[in-house]
Write the structure tokens for this entry.
Amino acid sequence: MSELKIQYIDVNKIQPYKNNARLHNNEQLASLEQSITLLGNRKPIEIDENGIIICGHGRFEVYKKLGLDHIPVIIHNDMTEEQKKAYRIADNEIALKSEWDFKLLNIEIEDINLKIDLFDDIKKKKINKEKKLNHKEIISEEENMLLDNYNNYYLMLSGGKDSFLSLENVAPILKEKGKYLECIYIDTGVEFPDLLPFIYNSCEEMGVKLTIIKSKKNFFECYGKKKKFPNSAHRECIGELISNCANDYMFSQKEDFIVIRGGRKKQKTSRSNSSLYQELLDYKKRKLKIYNPLFDVPEGIMPIHLWKGYDKGFDRTACWCCPFQKETQWEALKKYYPFLYEELEIMFKTWEFVKLKGDGYIKRIEKYWGKI
């Protein structure tokens, strides 16, 4: 093994690895930039003899944004291509297996007067972990029997609070029982830009398989041509864009399986009514067996993995162009995704919205967007 030496080289001589599988969202890069600005440039990028990054892609992006001409690197010229690939994965994955001792961490943070946003996130994570539901306490005898009777489980992961709370509390149980668990995320083309990286990184951290499926038709292919919003009563967009696509995938993979959802007892509409265990027919008359682990769980318990949009004022992880939202959702969209807000504003001016008798959405939409 060669001796490690830190060198400063021209930033233009460094190239990202073209198959870098590690995603860096804007929030993470902002935290990294703040850390470098406040605490200094303390960590070099690791590159090979050709200037290709082995580790440090996020740091490299921040260095470029800060306008640094020369940056610190460690050059590894004694590694095979196989070793480089293995090191890239191991360097990221090993770090995810560690945990904080929040008692000691809190003592350390209290002694720091520097204003670092990341510390606020750590404190929230600590609070959420303290609130975390103990999965062994929520599993009844009925649920245990249900989980023992099936070997294959799919979880429809929207990125929302309930879908992640379901995952965090069921995944350990299924792992203990030796069951198969796979999360499914349907990309309809109109999700918030940072939602998929959050879901991807969270599943990777938990060691849960995630399958990302592109909807057969995206939102604008289904509704853009006719310039007509989905029906507020039937919400056919959920089936057309998400559920049907997910069901087709699940039935193509396994003969017998359970679908895990985040249904709760309070949901009483015909579309969302749920129970602990349900059997429903999908659009092809296939029987779906559904397990709702949060059915009897009280409100207010938050998942450890929480999309940052909630802290910004978003109520849901729904599609950005969904018309069935509250004013707070639209205000958050206006502030954090102004370009998408402008598109939605055009849609409300030019698209048709089916007005149904007693539809409360009409009043809410016209109060905020004007008469439609």
About this structure: The chain has four domains: 6-96, 101-131, 136-291, 308-369. The chain has 14 helices and ten strands. The beta strands are 6-10, 45-48, 53-55, 70-76, 152-156, 180-187, 209-214, 258-260, 277-281, 287-291.
